[in-house]
Design brief:
The chain is of the alpha/beta class. Helices cover about 40% and strands about 15% of the residues. It has 13 helices and 9 strands. The chain has helices at about 1-10, 45-65, 85-95, 110-120, 135-145, 155-170, 210-220, 235-240, 250-260, 295-310, 320-325, 330-340, 350-365; strands at about 105, 125-130, 150-155, 175-180, 200-205, 230-235, 260-270, 275, 280-290. The strands form 2 sheets. A 7-stranded mixed β-sheet has the order 4-3-2-5-6-9-7, with helices on both faces. It has a two-stranded antiparallel ribbon with strand order 1-8. The longest helix is centred in the first third of the chain and has 23 residues, at about 45-65. It is elongated, with a radius of gyration of 34 Å. The relative contact order is 0.08.
């Protein structure tokens, strides 16, 4: 063989050191010295492994068939809550693509929804109302602790699928869940749900970012029975809701939410727990309703109206900000003086109690004809 190599290299052969290594090939029927010893009989092991795999497939197939919204092969989680695979699988099965118009970002993390339920202090037997349940992530976590849940969902396909999702994962909780298809900003009370259940005492929701404040305020007004609220909103909105007088973020949402009770931030939520991933951060807001209301609906409307006007030009003094609405600088100053408020102050410095006093002055001014009747919406 060495001669053959030299013949190929020709004149260059002298430059190389040629080594030929020969490896003896054992006979075909010789046993391998490195192969592991085979068991005495592999048949029993093969049959056991086959039975085990078959059993696992049967269990998975059975669990998959329990949920008609899941496509073949998608297996529900052991906890019954929704994970990333299930969120996407159910969305695909329903033909749903999350839209910004409806503010749809679905939570797919069990730890997050349980955190929200815990922040809301939800316990067995609680009557809860949920807004925007989506695919049911938070709904299942509320049912998991034993609460009774009535939900408001604006998207018909989602509303139709929710009862099936609950039956598939928590069949024992199916009779504790009810959903209506409607706009949460238009709901007016318990009669809209169409079920003979006690009035809800807690509001727990992942609110659509684009309508979070209007939905929150309407639900608080429509359900005086609600004593506690925990909602997940855009972090910036959470800051505004929980802000106090003098803060850069203090404004209309802060004042109106404070009409109903004390407001505070109750935690932050990372972006990665949503599908699709939002472009903003999220936070929890907790509201505890006052033991006694600040006033009747007439006072609420007057207070909210003058709050809107005061923050319409937040960098101006109240005398300047209210003058066009009140009928002139003199009328504006008289209104503020009647409420015991310095006309040179700005709206961002007034507390909720001071805005309420200003609302009382508005009602009185309209009663004596010194202020035009309101044209503001509810």
């Amino acid at each position: 063989m060495k001669k053959q190599v030299n013949a190929v290299l020709g004149e260059q052969a002298s430059k190389y050191e040629v080594r030929v290594v020969c490896r003896l090939r054992p006979p075909r029927d010789a046993p391998s010295l490195t192969a592991p010893l085979a068991p005495a009989s592999s048949a029993p092991c093969t049959r056991l492994a086959s039975v085990s795999r078959s059993s696992q497939r049967t269990q998975r197939d059975t669990r998959s068939r329990l949920d008609p919204t899941l496509p073949e092969g998608a297996v529900p989680s052991e906890t019954g809550l929704l994970g990333p695979l299930e969120i996407k699988a159910i969305s695909e099965a329903l033909g749903i693509r999350p839209t910004k118009v409806l503010g749809q970002n679905f939570v797919h993390d069990a730890g997050t929804v349980r955190k929200i339920v815990a922040a809301g202090g939800v316990e067995e037997g609680d009557e809860v109302v949920e807004v925007g349940p989506g695919l049911g992530s938070l709904t299942l976590a509320l049912l998991e602790v034993g609460a009774r849940v009535r939900a408001v969902e604006i998207d018909p396909p989602l509303a139709a699928a929710l009862p099936e999702t609950v039956r598939a994962r928590m069949s024992e909780a199916a009779d504790r869940f009810h959903v209506v298809t409607m706009d949460a900003t238009e709901i007016s009370g318990v009669d809209d749900f169409g079920v003979d259940w006690p009035a809800p005492t807690k509001l727990v929701a992942n609110l659509p970012y684009n309508v979070a404040v209007p939905v929150l305020l309407n639900m608080l007004e429509a359900f005086p029975s609600i004593r506690g609220v925990v909602v997940m909103v855009q972090a910036e909105v959470a800051d505004r809701l929980a802000a106090g007088p003098g803060s850069r973020t203090y404004g209309v949402p802060s004042v109106k939410a404070s009409w109903y009770g004390s407001v505070e931030r109750a935690g932050t939520i990372g972006r990665s727990v949503f599908w699709p991933v939002p472009g903003v951060d999220s936070a929890l807001v907790r509201l505890t309703r006052l033991e006694a209301p600040r006033g009747d609906d007439c006072l609420r409307r007057a207070t909210f109206e003058v709050t809107d006007v005061a923050f319409g030009q937040r960098r101006k003094t109240l005398r300047a900000a209210l003058k066009n609405w009140a009928g002139g600088p003199e009328a504006s100053e008289a209104l503020l003086s009647a409420a015991g408020i310095d006309p040179t102050r700005r709206g961002e410095t007034l507390s909720i109690d001071e805005f309420v006093e200003l609302g009382r002055a508005v009602i009185e001014a309209r009663a004596n004809g010194s202020l035009a009747a309101s044209t503001a919406a509810r």
